[in-house]
Amino acid sequence: FQTADLAFALALEDASDPLTAMSVIEEQCWGLIRQGKLTATRELAFGWADDNEPRISADRNELAAWGRLLIRASTAAVRDNRPSEAHQALRLARMAAAGTGQDFVLPYAPWHVFGPMTVSVIAAENATIQDKPTTTLAIAGRIEGTRVLRYAPSHRLDVAQAHATLRQYPEAIDVLQQLRRARPQWLPRQRHAADILTTIVRRRRSLTPEMRDLADFMQLSL
Question: SS3 helix, strand, coil % of the chain, rounded to 5?
């Protein structure tokens, strides 16, 4: 993380325009979340969002940069048990997303997308963290499709977890199998996926052939 902090500082110093600088800060927020520094994340994200609030004439790139900072703020707030802050930040991000029309790849940060689907994915993730599986599934039902699987495969893990929480085990396994087919190299590296499958097995106390095959694929000892 020390190396990452240095990289962020150098990238920010080298940023040639506000949008690039905001994308650096957004990535720094992600790093802070990974370290569990939720207060620092919220303060950084909200601070930069306040200082860079888009004008009425803002284009979609400016809206996206602002909106993604608010997403990071919401993500930190919900993990810090600040549901009102999380809701408010996501509400503003949703307003920014409405101005973009649809999700698009950010030209100044081409590893990210932003738009209405992105905000919905985060809303589902927040609901998962708040142990609201029915809300997660309701949101998922509105945004299902290949674009979600392409841009936000981790969202499908939230869906699988929601099914597992509601003891809808066949549905949870089906989602994991979809990810196996779509992301065969990605899925075995996801601790979240392993935790979901482990939870299902412990609750059922038995392995179906499909579950055993999936566990072998993910290299789990169950």
Answer: 75, 5, 20
- The conformation of residue 113, written as its DSSP 8-state character, comes to E
Contact assessment for residue 118 and residue 137, using Cβ atoms and an 8 Å cutoff = no
Identify the three-state secondary structure at position 110: strand
Give the N- to C-terminal CA distance of the chain in Å, as an integer.
32
- Find, among 206, 119, 111, 190, the residue nearest to 154 by Cα: 190
CA triple 205-207-211, angle to 5 deg: 130
- CA–CA gap between residue 174 and residue 79 (Å, rounded): 28
pLDDT, tens digit, for every residue of 22-55? 999 999 999 999 999 999 999 999 999 999 999 9
Distance CA 126, CA 98 (A): 20
What global pTM score does this model have? 0.90
Q: Are strands 104-106 and 109-114 parallel, antiparallel or unpaired?
A: antiparallel
Cβ neighbours around 160 below 10 Å, total: 25
